[in-house]
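re: that complex we talked abt at group meeting.

here r the seqs, copy pasted straight from the sheet so there may be weird spacing, ignore it
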Amino acid sequence: MALFRRETQRRVNTLPLVAPSVGVLLIWMIIPLVMTIWFSLQNYNLIVPTIRGFAGLDNYAYLLDDPALWTAMINTLVLVGSVLAITVVFGTLFAVLLNQDFWGVGAARLFIIAPFFVMPTVSALIWKNMLMHPVNGLFAWITRSLGLPPVDWFADVPMLSVIIIVAWQWIPFATLILLTALQSLDEEQKEAARMDGAGPLSMFYFIILPHLGRSITVVIMIETIFLLTIFAEIFVTTSGGPGLATTNLAFFIYIRALLEFDVGGASAGGVIAIILANIVAIFLVRSVARNLDA
Amino acid sequence: MATLTLRNIKKVYGDVEVIQDLSLDIEDREFVVLVGPSGCGKSTLLRMIAGLEEISGGDLSIDDERVNELPPDRRGLAMVFQSYALYPHMTVADNMAFALRLAGVSREERMAKVGEAAKILHLEPLLDRKPRALSGGQRQRVAIGRAIVREPRVFLFDEPLSNLDAALRVQMRIEIARLHNSLDATMIYVTHDQVEAMTMADKIVVMNAGHIEQVGSPLDLYHHPESLFVAGFIGSPKMNFIEAKIASVGGDGTKVALSDGTKVAVPVSGGGMSSGDAVTLGVRPEDLTAVANDQATGGDLAGRVVVAERLGGETFLYTEVLDGQTLNLKGPGAMTYRVNDAIRLRIDGATCHLFRDDGKALPRLARNPMADLDAEPVAPGAAG
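got the structure back, here u go
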């Protein structure tokens, strides 16, 4: 009897208790989304304020016809993919390195983590003016002292330059997450592998890498969210150029909205960006979520 | 299979010597148990044998070949860890075959050997599972299977049963003992549990603070402890120690007097001792008897029951005698003494031990016949 009563007591209607916060969250998300979709269906260009009205899918048709959109999409994927690959590989290597005990490991950790605390605009400026600059840059000085012609990074290999800058900012994040994961690896497991005859390489491949699997998944997921919207680095260094060489979706929308003042077109670009992000998310969740359930 | 020789082994961390000058011989096919309190260096010693810790000094030889500098995998040893240390992302079969895989053994041969070991340990239905889907006892068996598959010269066990519940521990104890018989392997086993040591060992090595206190068969250590430490460590409940003074020394034993004047004759040689010397009298709880008041003689100690622990089959009484000294008594389950009851304890001098004030035991005049009884082999099938 007592058990029965307790069970009925637990069946409280929780909806009114949760509703306020869920409601706020819903409004928070729905209003910008609906407004974006609404604007994307309007003829709304600030330069020609006389032409207003419902445009139907004209904005989308115009956008999808524009080869610049496709270039921007491919650039986005290239940027995200390359930075992910670089940060995961180097993050893993740095994590394994920093997990060793050597003289000055504390300082080394600090230096490797430090780039994460530099704000994107500042680090982009430093890379642009002090490292990659063809006249003043450190890299140019190095190539010159080797008797080679300097590389004009942002003119010759603009996408690679942006990738290097962004990867430099995100390697610390990957290192940090993977280092903490490494520190949770059971010492006895490593010792058992040593007794089983595992050298450093097979230890890394058979024991350490599988142990890091889940954390690598987390790194990839979190980084993807931020890398899809990279803007400051491109704005400061190349402004999406030369031509469209470094224009990603975020920068493309910026051009539409704040350089061409085409609110309708920019909103349509935003909706397309949402769709692209969701496609990436589906692939990501499909391929890596297996690692997470355990 | 293998003999192991340790000569003047030393282990130093910084300027702390955790193991000083330790020598030990381990015969072929012997089951040696290293036992001692926490921090006595037994695990460190095992890890040095395994090659996981560097040896700071001395020689470690396996089959007369010095292996100090050999890496762990080339010493021909296999180790079972306390946490089992299974590889969580590999199946049971892959866990067991990992060493062979690294050694470049072909897949068919690997699976054949894993199958063989799985049969011995009844692991066949579990081969495709991951470790996290196994119970503690099954994980333990996989860890042992991983060791068997490598066909090592020596098996090393580092407190392998301490994470199991009591019933499973008893079962795994029997299984390991059976395994030792069927594999004819040399095994070195570290534990702090003296029941494991007593039941499984051919030879027990009692360690204390980085050195060996005594080496011997379980019953040898039980009946002829060479020091106060070994006497207190082997046997459960712990041996009672009573302060006493030598009363007389003779050819047929030594007589001591307790603080209340009670005299006890102990059959040990009192060489070098003289009347009045302070000694410690050791009495095992199972050698103490409670006597009824009407059978009392002058040689009994009068006291009071402080705590009574009834286990059903046996009873432990904690009594207070001789101005506050505690004596433990192990008796039959049918004992009716209650807390605060008066009790008379009879000490049988023939089973007592005497220890000098430096902790060394006075040698017994005659060896207990049980101490030289060879360890009974465990019949196959005993564990079920």
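couple things i noticed - The longest helix of chain A spans residues 67-98. Chain A has one domain: 58-292.
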